[in-house]
Amino acid sequence: MGNNHSSIRLGTALASVLAVTTLNAGAATLRIEFNGLDFKYDAAGNLYDAAGIAGGTGNGATSDPLAIVQFFTGSTLLGTLSANIYADFLFQQVNNIPSAGGTVTSGDLSTGFGFDILTQPGTPGWGVDLEVSQVMVTYDPGSAAPIGVTAIAVADSLFYQNLPSFLGGQQFDTTQPINITFSASDLANVTSSGGFLTGFDASGNGNIRGTISGVPEPSEYLMAGLGLLGLGYFIRRKKAALA
Predict the structure, then answer these.
(1) How many CB atoms neighbour CB 186 within 10 A?
(2) What is the pLDDT of residue 22?
(3) Neighbour-count burial of 242, counting CB atoms closer than 10 A to its CB (0-12 exposed, 13-18 middle, 19+ buried)
(4) pTM score
(5) C-beta separation of 132 from 109 below 8 A
């Protein structure tokens, strides 16, 4: 009977460890979702917010206003902003997007252009400033979202982050890559030449996703739990030997 009780206790402990691991696997991700992004593409291979090609100025007056921004940890919505929020970005060397459809990858973007989300100038608020190393653009003219963009910000390229207070101090881990993705559900003024796109106007939605600073990886919880289970087994064996 004692061995059965020990097995039950060990099974309960294992279930608890796995539950903690699952919960923290979700909580380890910070995601900023944004809607209402307007952007353009030109024949020189520039992809940029519709308000202007300057890019990376951090100035809301020359950046594209967003409709709504939501903040998540895992699947939990922590807060929403819906006024005075802007996107400012410029990705260069995005050349030769096939007009029949396909995927291209930009050249090296280490010259300092990137993707910013910020509040209106002059208002105390929040923002993120991401420098991007490379961009991948997919064009699928027959789909509901014909333009898809994926950008990677390298670990040390988060120049600035001042996130809303309702996140409770959670921030992106600057030692881990941060991904930026957005797509266009509306595409207009598409032009092409020689089998490649030379321009379009687009609008759509996207997100910025990365690891939360200071949150242990799920594997760390699992290893700790397995260690506790091993200790329990050792104690049970020791008691049995003494009985």
Answers:
(1) 12
(2) 37
(3) exposed
(4) 0.74
(5) yes
